[in-house]
Amino acid sequence: MNAVYSKVLGMLITIGLGSFLRHLGILDKKDAAVISKIMLNVTLPAMIIGYLNGLTLSKDILTAVLCGLAVNLLFFLGGFLRARKNDPDDRAVKVFSSVGMNIGGLGIPVLSTVASAEAMAAVMAFNYVGTPIFVLGIAPSVCAAAYSGGGRIRPGTVLGKLFTSTCGITCFAMLGLSALHIVLPPFVMEFCTALNNSNNLLAMLVIGILLELKFPKGALRDVAGLCAVRFGAAAVCAALIWFFLPVSDEIRRALTLVCFVPLPSPNPALALASGYRGGRVAAVMSLDLLVGLAAMSAMLVLLYG
Predict the structure, then answer these.
(1) Mean pLDDT in the chain?
(2) 196-220 residue pLDDT tens
(3) Which parts of 154-223 are beta strand (E)?
(4) Domain 2-304 adopts which CATH fold?
């Protein structure tokens, strides 16, 4: 129990350090973008290689893939079905305020300190199939279609998003090697271990740099409502996983926790790229981050304490 409390305290201190360095002017949001790129293209792929090398593709891993698709679908529908028809802005806000989880940038670094290798492999399988499809493919396509008036989603574009991220490519490559029973040599694993040891520190610094406690005037109630719906959906998903998912206890604990991971950091940029020009998605991100961190910390102590 003390070890888990120490990990949570260490994360909160590092987040505070990132925020403090931003207020001093030493780091800013541009630095956070650079650190995020390093994580997504260097240290997180190294972690994926470390956990998936020599993996046996068990029924639990395949179940985690299907579970990830189902959870991402539920989050997406939670925003899409509540959006007003013929209102592209409302669709963009509600979709990008509900879809996806920042498992790669936050969930995996946090879980790597307490979860088993089997559970980490399942979390990666859960994340790197469902998340690219819905966050990078379906959500932008649906919102862009609303602005263009075409209303069509292109399957080719959606499927192509699976192979646009370094983490996604690495995950598929390692799953392929595992299916062929190919194991990478020890020197590669030593190099990957050296890289992935920095993931937790970098993730918490980015959160501290980006954390905002100010909201647009009069928007707090709307933002809070959007967050409440999202974490209500997270609680439903977590309960279904905990009571009904036919996997090992280690995997069940890890997948239950990741349901409460905050929204993916690219969501505001993806909303803008789809045609949205407001600031509500970014405001939701800030509150979602605060609530998500609190929920994750509580679940970490509850499940692993």
Answers:
(1) 83
(2) 778 778 877 887 887 766 666 667 7
(3) none
(4) Na+/H+ antiporter like fold (1.20.1530)
Q: Which residue has the higher pLDDT, 276 or 150?
A: 276
Q: Render pLDDT for 133-147 as a digit per residue (tens, 0 to 9).
A: 788 778 887 888 778
pLDDT at 3 over 60: no
| pTM of the shown model | 0.76
- Euclidean distance between CA atoms 82 and 16, whole angstroms: 35
Residue 263 CB contacts under 8 Å (≥ 6 apart), including other chains: 96, 97, 99, 100, 101, 102, 230, 284, 285, 288, 289, 292
DSSP for the chain, please give it.
-HHHHHHHHHHHHHHHHHHHHHHHTSS-HHHHHHHHHHIIIIIHHHHHHHHHTT----HHHHHHHHHHHHHHHHHHHHHHTTSPTT-HHHHHHHHHTTS---IIIIIHHHHTTTS-HHHHHHHHHHHHHHHIIIIIIIHHHHHHHHHHT-----HHHHHHGGGSSHHHHHHHHHHHHHHTT----HHHHHHHHHHHTTHHHHHHHHHHHH------TT-HHHHHHHHHHHHHHHHHHHHHHHHH--S-HHHHHHHHHHTTPPPPTTHHHHHHHHT---SHHHHHHHHHHHHHHHHHHHHHHHHH-
Give the pLDDT mean for 30-57: 81
CA 295-207-219 angle, 5° bins: 70
Q: What is the C-alpha to C-alpha distance for residues 196 and 181, in angstroms, rounded to an integer?
A: 23
- State both tokens at 226: 């959007």
Domain spans in the chain, listed from the N-terminal domain onward: 2-304
What pLDDT is stored for residue 1 in this prediction?
45
